[in-house]
Amino acid sequence: MKPLPLLVLIPLLALPTLLTAQVVARQGTPAEPPPQEFKSPMVLDLPIKDFQVMASGNGKDFREVRRYYCEDVTISELLVTKKEDSHRGKAPGMKLKIRGSVSVRPSHDRLATLRFDVLKNEERFATAQVSGINAEEGKTRGFSTSLEMDAEALERLFAPGEPPLLRVTVTVQDNN
Fold first, then answer.
1. Residue among 49, 128, 113 at smallest CA distance from 75
2. What angle do CA 149, 150, 155 make, to 5 degrees?
3. pTM summary value
4. Which domains, ranges and CATH numbers included, belong to the chain?
């Protein structure tokens, strides 16, 4: 038998590699990103420019805040609702009704304070604070508050330029 030339052998040696398929991995449902951990105080800036055109009585559920933990505490629900606040003979102002809940991981007791500021370019238009939320291990505690702004403040808040924000500052203390 005559030996095969080298040029014929090289492609034959590579043939098993060509016949095996490459593995392709894909994800059917994207996985939730892992929670992000912060030391106290934690500051969350939430966009609220849509509230200018939103109808009174409508709101937004800021579900994304659930991904952020501050010293084992998370805001597990945060719903902000717009209410037009009109006074006889004056241009309407706006009230933001805020309600939600905080949760704490098992085996921890925490005392949480939530501060809500409406800001634009670091100018504060309204502030509210909910203090002394006693978040016991594995439990959820509700809260509610509101922020009010008059027509003049709204005009400046929604003027062209930087978008307005709802800044949520979460301060947590151990409560053992």
1. 113
2. 95
3. 0.77
4. 35-174 (2.60.40.10)
